[in-house]
Design goal:
This is Bifunctional diguanylate cyclase/phosphodiesterase. The chain is α/β, with parallel strands linked by helices. 48% of the residues lie in helices and 22% in strands. It has helices at residues 11-21, 37-44, 46-63, 87-102, 130-146, 157-176, 216-226, 229-250, 268-281, 302-313, 329-335, 345-348, 355-370, 383-392, 408-425, and strands at 9-10, 28-35, 69-74, 77-82, 105-107, 110-112, 115-122, 152-154, 182-191, 196-208, 212-214, 256-261, 288-293, 317-323, 340-343, 374-377, 396-398. It binds ligand C2E and magnesium ion (2 copies).
């Protein structure tokens, strides 16, 4: 019935007894998950973590209206069941909860700050039971987390649809490889001058029988979380190297291939995998670039550094993808042996007029070139952007202006057409 640590009700108890305890049926549920709570446990120990949780419970009790039910729902999760309340009032309530939880906690002379992601589900006439209401509030909370944390989010039918799709994706992913549902699309990377395709980036595509095309931005994080990324990453690398070697023999002897890898793949096993794939495909290591996104954290462990050096030692190049979007852009350049970087398309989008984007691009180029790195601009969509980037001295360009990602036959047709055009131009 009660949670031993905080003295609040337990989740199961309030859901079961809501009708009785609230004097009428519950009209809304607030689901609260603390942001960054793990950091408190990790930096100050579980004892301090427990004290923060008790203090959160205390603050929640202070914010509640008479008659509301407050429960602890999980380790760092809380639940408020509310009787008779308007949507606007609920939003104000949730904002107050976020502000209260966001104020620092003083524990033994140390200050800790956590945030709160709050999901709200509102019951219109009739409809679902309290358990369903709480599940909806929890779904809304997960969306609040994904959309940037420390915010409130009302439950909507769209959120439910999105959540159902995510669940289907997650359960279909493990079989998708065996069922042959993955394919690679290829996008050209061109040299600045003369415009010439020098590299092809392999982009993973998944077409599911029922869900249709699923974006890698959606399934790669799931594969990372579930550990499938290693097998999937091996498959991509192998396919890409075999295809690239075929092209180098038949039409494009100097073409190199860029393969995206997750930081989670960078272990000892991957070193031997790369060596094996290069040997079996016959691809020259100098023709392979591995792109590591800056969006996901790269653990600065000696194991990662030694794996990267071993792979770089074979002659393979590393490139930092989406440069400028993560938190550690510059320290990446200092710590890891990289050959180049790709300026994220969010900066390119602001060219040629937005002064802040111009300043950032110029700054990145200055730093990269002074370190001898090759700079590629991603997401180039207009001639104006391309000209501007060329003027600033970007080495390579990529984007819809030069070619969209295409399956291999389409890519090579385009490659031939472009090569023909270039040779006529000379
Ligand atoms: P990325 O590696 O930065 O790839 C560039 C993304 O931008 C691709 O999206 C591409 O289709 C898109 N793009 C290219 N040019 C333009 C443009 O001019 N305008 C716009 N608006 N978009 C452009 P895609 O294929 O959906 O891939 C998204 C991300 O998923 C990739 O970003 C990469 O981080 C990840 N990804 C893709 N394939 C793999 C893979 O095999 N392994 C891993 N670990 N991640 C992958
Ligand atoms: Mg990439
Ligand atoms: Mg990118």
């Amino acid at each position: 019935m009660f949670d031993a640590l905080t003295g609040l009700y337990s989740r199961a108890y309030v859901i079961e007894r809501a009708a009785l305890l609230l004097n009428s049926s519950c009209t809304a549920a607030l689901f609260i998950n603390l942001d960054d709570f793990r950091r408190v446990n990790e930096t100050a120990g579980y004892e301090s973590g427990d004290r923060v949780l008790r203090a959160v419970a205390h603050r929640l009790a202070g914010a509640a209206r008479a008659g509301d039910l407050i429960a602890r729902s999980g380790s760092d999760e809380f639940l408020v069941l509310i009787d008779r309340c308007e949507a606007a009032e609920l939003a104000r309530y949730a904002q107050r909860v976020i502000a209260l939880i966001g104020a620092p906690f003083a524990i033994d002379g140390q200050y800790f700050t956590v945030g709160a992601s709050v999901g709200i589900a509102f019951r219109s006439e009739g409809g679902i039971d309290t358990g369903g209401l709480v599940r909806n509030a929890e779904m809304a909370m997960r969306t609040a987390k994904r959309r940037g944390r420390n915010r409130l989010q009302f439950f909507t039918q769209d959120i439910q649809g999105e959540m159902e799709r995510r669940i289907k994706i997650e359960s279909a992913l493990p079989q998708a490889l065996a069922q042959g549902e993955f394919a690679l699309a290829w996008q050209p990377i061109v040299e600045r001058e003369p415009v010439r395709t020098v590299c092809a980036e392999a982009l993973l595509r998944w077409t599911h029988g029922e869900l249709g095309a699923i974006s890698p931005a959606q399934f790669v994080p799931i594969a990372e979380r579930t550990g499938l990324i290693e097998r999937l990453g091996d498959w991509v690398l192998e396919q890409a190297c075999v295809r690239a070697e075929q092209w180098r023999w038949s039409v494009a002897p100097d073409l190199c291939v860029a393969v995206n890898i997750s930081p989670l793949q960078l272990n000892r096993r991957f070193v031997s995998k790369v060596a094996h794939i290069l040997e079996s495909s016959g691809l020259s290591p100098a023709a392979l670039e591995l792109e590591i996104t800056e969006g996901a954290p790269l653990p600065d462990t000696s194991a990662v550094i030694s794996s990267m050096s071993a792979i770089a030692g074979m002659g393979v190049k590393f490139v930092i993808d989406d440069f400028g979007t993560g938190f550690s852009s510059l320290s990446y350049l200092r710590r890891f042996a990289v050959h180049g970087l790709k300026i994220d398309r969010s900066f390119v989008a602001g060219l040629p007029h937005e002064s802040r984007s111009i300043a950032i691009v110029e700054g990145m180029l200055k730093i990269a070139h002074s370190m001898g790195l090759t700079v590629t601009a991603e997401g180039v969509e207009t001639q104006e952007q391309a000209e501007c980037l060329r003027d600033y001295g970007v080495d390579r360009l990529q984007g819809f202006l030069f070619g969209r990602p295409l399956e291999h036959a389409g890519f090579i047709d385009d490659f031939r057409r472009r090569a023909g055009r270039d040779s006529q131009a000379l």
